[in-house]
Amino acid sequence: MLAAMFDAEKAVADFVRFGSVSADPSAKAGMDGAVRFLSELLRRHCGCEVEVVPTPGHPVVIGRRGGDPAWPHVVVYGHYDVQPQDPLDEWNTPPFEPVVKNGFMYGRGTADDKGPLMVHIAAFAKLLEAYPDFPVRATFLVEGEEEVGSVNLAAVMEAKKEELAGDFVLMSDTNNAGPDDATITTGLRGLACLEVILRGPKQDLHSGINGGPVMNPIRALAKLCAGLHDEKGRVTIPGFYDAVRPALDWEKAELARMGDNVEAYKKLLGVPAFVTPEGYGVFESRSFGPTLEYNGITGGYQGPGSKTIIPAKASVKISCRLVPDQEGEAILDLVDKAIRARCPQGVTMEIIHHSAGDPYVVLPPHLSGEGLDSAKARAFAAADREVRASFGNPPHYLREGGSVPILSDIRRILGMDALMLGVALPDSCMHSPNENLSLEVFRRCTKVSEAIWKAVARK
Amino acid sequence: MLAAMFDAEKAVADFVRFGSVSADPSAKAGMDGAVRFLSELLRRHCGCEVEVVPTPGHPVVIGRRGGDPAWPHVVVYGHYDVQPQDPLDEWNTPPFEPVVKNGFMYGRGTADDKGPLMVHIAAFAKLLEAYPDFPVRATFLVEGEEEVGSVNLAAVMEAKKEELAGDFVLMSDTNNAGPDDATITTGLRGLACLEVILRGPKQDLHSGINGGPVMNPIRALAKLCAGLHDEKGRVTIPGFYDAVRPALDWEKAELARMGDNVEAYKKLLGVPAFVTPEGYGVFESRSFGPTLEYNGITGGYQGPGSKTIIPAKASVKISCRLVPDQEGEAILDLVDKAIRARCPQGVTMEIIHHSAGDPYVVLPPHLSGEGLDSAKARAFAAADREVRASFGNPPHYLREGGSVPILSDIRRILGMDALMLGVALPDSCMHSPNENLSLEVFRRCTKVSEAIWKAVARK
Questions:
Q1: b/e map of A123-132 (b: 16 or more CB within 10 Å)?
Q2: How far apart are CA B326 and CA B267, in angstroms?
Q3: What is the DSSP letter of A229?
Q4: Alpha-helical runs (H) found in A114-259
Q5: Which pLDDT score is estimated for B4?
Q6: Predicted ipTM of the assembly
Q7: Which of A40, A174, A326, B448 is at a distance of 20 to 30 A from B147, taking alpha carbons?
C-alpha cells in the first residue's frame, strides 16, 4: 500500500535535519532519527520491508521491495551518515537546518549523501506510484558508517550475501564535472587512514625552566611529517608507488575532453597556486595519482595569545588516497612501518589505524566491450541517453578522487559492479562548511534514475 | 592601622581562588577579584596606600608604604596573573580550588607567582606587626600581564619612574634547585614569541575530490618548522646565535656544583631521552643556551576518528628563549624574516608578533666585587646567611631558563637590579597541571625575606 505523492525535495530537507555524524559519539540522537526516518520512507514510498541490522557500530538499513524472482534485481547503495559539521563558525546557515536559496539547498548531508541517495528513492517511488507492479526487485542498502570507513558493512553483506546479490549496484555518492556536465564515475580512489601520536615529557613543561634538552613533540612531529614528501612532492614511503597502474588511454582522453581550466579551478578552491607531484598534471593528480594528506594536527596550547610551554604530546591525522592497484591494508602497513622507523629521538610514538579501503574501477559496457543485454548494460545505456536529454551534453566517464571503499567489498562479496551517477557538483562543499545541493541537478538526475529503472524493467 | 595577625598560607589560598588568567578574555572576573584581594591585603597588612593603575590591558597594582625619604626603599615585584589552566583533565584537583596535601598546596598560581609574591608580603607584614615604625620604604609593584609578556608595565614605570625608583627590586618568580637547595637567580632568559598562520584553500576541502594538486597547509607548516632546527639541534635562523655570550667561569662552576644528575632529571620530566643542541650539556642548554620552541600547533580536524579533509589553514605558536646578549625585538625580527623567506609554495603566510623581552643578568655583590654597604649588597649578604641557616646549605647562584622580561625594563627605566629568591621547586609544575607550592619552602623563604628586610633597615 503506497502513500500519497512523494515530495522528494521535502524528503531531502527532512532527512538532513537529523545530525547523523557517525564520527561523533554524542550524535546518537541524529543517527537514530535518520534511521527511523529512512526506514519509514522506504516502507511508505518504495514498497519495502525494512530491516535495521545492528552492527558493533551504527546499524545498516536494508529496504527490500521483492517480487518475481525472474525480475531484475537492482541494489541501491547509499549512506545516511554525514561528516562532522565543524568548523561551525564558517557555516552561513546552521548545518542541520536546511535552507533553500537560489535553487540550492544548504545543509550537512545535502550533497553527501542524503540528497543523492534520495534521487533513486524518489525515482523508484514515482515509478511505483504510476506502476504498482513495476517489474524490478529493489534493495536499498544504506549504511551509517561511510564517513568512518564502512567498518561493519562488509560483515553484514557476508551474512546476507544471497539476498543482497543483484544485477548491479546503483548509487550516487560521486561528483559531476559541472551543472551541465553529468559524470558517470568509472573509478574511485582507495583510502588508508591513520593517526600518529608523539609523546615527550609526561606533562606540559615550562618552556623556560626546562627548554634546551627536551625534544619538543611538535618539533619532532614536524620533522617526521616533513620527511613524508620529497622535494618533487612525491611520497617517500618505500614501496608507496610500486602498485600504481598508469591510466588507460580512453581515461586520459575523457579527462582531456573536460578541458584543463586550471585558473577556474584555482579560483574555485581559493588557493594561491597548485603544487602537483612530479609526473602528474593538476587534474591528473586528482584522478590518477595517490596522495598522502594531513587531515588534522594538534599539540600544546590552542587558546588565544601565547603560553610558553613544551607540550607533552602532539598528534597528526593522516589519510592516503590510493589508485589501482594499490591496496588499502598494504599501504597502511607500509606507511606504519616507515613512520615507525623514522620516530625522532626524544619522543615515543603511538600509531592508530583508522580505516583502509581499496581503489575501484568499473568500465562502462560500451567502453569495455562486454555484452549489452544485461540489466547493468541496459542501465548504463539508459543513463547515457537520458543524461544527453536532460543535461544537453553526453556524460563524462571519469575516475574521481574520492573514495567509496565499500565498492570493492561489494564486488568481492556480492559480485556486482556499480553504476555511479554524479549528483553533487565541484562546489557542493562536501565535507566542508556550507555543503549544498543543486535542486536543478537533483531533478535532472531523478529523471536519469527513472530512465535507468525503466530500462532495467524492459527486458 | 594594621589589622589582625597575618595568616600567610590562608592568604595564598584565598589569592589562588581568583582564576586570574591574563591570556583568557573570559577570565575578567578572576582578574578583577585578584586585584581587589591584593589591594585589600596590601592596605590591611603592609600599611600601603594602593593605586590600581589602569592600562590598555590588565591594571597594575601599586602599594606604597612610605616614610622618611632617608629610609632605604625596596621595590617588591610580582604578578597576580596566572597561566591558562588547560589541559583541565590532567589536574587532580580543580585549578582554582586550592588544596593542601602532604605539605604542598595545589592550584594554578600557587608557585607562579601568588605563593612566591606572598613570601615578601608576609615577611613585611610580620615585621610591621612587630615594629610599626619599621624604617624601610616599600613599594609593591604587582602586574597582571607577566604571563602575556608584560606589555603595559614599562609604560606605567616610565610614567611613575620617580616614585618607583628604589634601591633594588626584591622578587620571587624563579626556581630553587631543590627543597634544601635555595637558589638566588643571577640571570634569566629573554623571550620572543610569535605565531605563524599558513592558509591554503579558502575553506576545508574534501581530500579525495581535490587531493593531489593542493598544497596541504599542515604539510607546508611541517616543512617550514622542520627547517628551523638543523641535524645538530641548532636553530637555523641566520644570525640567531651571533650575540650569544659564553657563560662566565664562576657560572659554570656553580652549575657544576649542582651535580649533573641527568637520570633523575629525565625521570622528573618523564622524557625517554634528552636531545641537546650541539655545544651544550643537558643543564647548560637550559641555563646558557637559547631555544626555539613550539608551544602549540593546530590545523584541520581535531575531533575523534578521522575526517578526510585538506584543511584551509594551519598555525603554530613559537617562542624563543634568549641568552645574553641576544635582544628580544632583534630576534623576533630575525625569526620573522627567515620564516617569511621560507614560506612554502601553495600557501600564504601571516605572522603575528606576541611579545619580546631581553635576557637579564645580575651579579651578586660578593661575586661582582662591587661595594658591600649598599642596601642591595646588605640584602644579598643577608639572603646568603639566612639561606644557610634556614635551608642548611649555601644558596646556589644560577642562571635560570625562565624569563621575567620586565627585569630589563626595570633596570633601564628605574635603574635597579633585582634580588631573585627562588620559592618554586623543579616539580612545582609551573605552567603545567597540578601546579603546587611546598609550604615548608614557603616558610623558609619567608624567614629569608624577613632577614633581607631587616638587613636593609640596619644601615
A1: bbbbbbeeee
A2: 31
A3: B
A4: 114-130, 153-159, 161-164, 217-226, 249-257
A5: 55
A6: 0.83
A7: B448
What is the pLDDT, as a whole number, of residue A404? 82
Cα separation, B54 vs A120, whole angstroms = 66
CA distance A20 to chain B (A): 14
Which of B236, B430, B431 to probe the A interface (max A CBs under 10 A)? B431
Residue contact A298–B303, C-beta within 8 A: no
Distance CA B98, CA B108 (A): 8
Q: Could you tell me which chain A residue has the CA closest to the CA of B191?
A: A208
> Which residues in chain B have Cβ-Cβ distances shorter than 8 Å to A84?
301, 303, 307
Phi, psi of A16 (to 5 degrees): -65, -30
Q: What is the 3-state secondary structure (H, E, C) of A394-436?
A: CCEEEEECCCCCHHHHHHHHHCCCEEEECCECCCCCCCCCCCE
Please compute the mean of the pLDDT values over residues B270-285 and round it to a whole number: 95
Contact between chains at A306 and B272 (C-beta distance less than 8 A): no
A18: helix, coil or strand?
Answer: coil
In order of A145, A361, B67, B287, B340, the CA distances from A57 in angstroms are 8, 28, 75, 53, 47
Exactly one of A145, A146, A167, A251 is catalytic; name it: A146
The one-digit pLDDT tens for each residue of chain A (459 residues) are: 444 578 999 999 999 999 999 999 999 999 999 999 999 999 999 999 999 999 999 999 999 999 999 999 999 999 999 999 988 999 999 999 999 999 999 999 999 999 999 999 999 999 999 999 999 999 999 999 999 888 899 999 999 999 999 999 999 999 998 999 999 999 999 999 999 999 999 999 999 989 999 999 999 999 999 999 999 999 999 999 999 999 988 889 888 887 778 999 999 999 999 999 999 999 999 999 999 999 999 999 999 888 899 999 999 999 999 999 999 999 999 999 999 999 999 999 999 999 898 999 998 887 777 877 899 999 999 999 999 999 999 999 999 898 887 898 999 999 999 999 999 998 999 888 999 999 999 999 999 999 999 999 986
With CA atoms as reference, report the closest residue to A247 among A192, A189, A292: A189
Q: Could you tell me the three cell numbers for A144? A: 551509517
**A92 touching chain B per CB within 8 A:** no
Best residue of A197, A204, A235 to probe chain B, by most B CBs closer than 10 Å: A204
Within a 10 A sphere around the Cβ of B340, how many other Cβ atoms? 11
Provide the grid cell at A95: 548545518
Cell 658591600 belongs to B372
What are the helix (H) ranges across B20-179? 28-46, 114-130, 153-159, 161-164
Pairing verdict, β B183-188 and B99-101: unpaired
Among A residues 214-233, those touching chain B with beta carbons less than 8 Å apart: 214-216, 218-219, 221-229
A14 tagged catalytic: no
Q: Which residue of A225, A309, A355 is in closest CB contact with B222?
A: A225
User: Which domains, and CATH codes, for chain A?
Assistant: 8-188+360-457 (3.40.630.10), 190-244+290-356 (3.30.70.360)
Which three-class secondary structure state does DSSP give residue B432?
Answer: coil
- The DSSP result for B77-115, as a single string, is EEE--B----SGGG-SS-TTS-EEETTEEESTTTTTTHH
How far off is chain A from B11, nearest CA to CA, in Å? Answer: 25
d(CA B128, CA B118): 15
| pTM for the whole structure | 0.82
Secondary-structure breakdown of chain A: helix, strand, coil percentages, each rounded to the nearest 5: 35, 25, 40
Give catalytic status of residue A162 as yes or no.
no
Contact residues for B11 (Cβ-Cβ < 8 A; gap 6+) = B41, B118, B121, B122
**Residue B177, by phi and psi: left (phi above 0), alpha (psi -120 to 50) or beta?**
alpha
Q: How far apart are CA B69 and CA B137, in angstroms?
A: 8
| pLDDT at site A191 | 93
Cell numbers 624563543: residue: B320
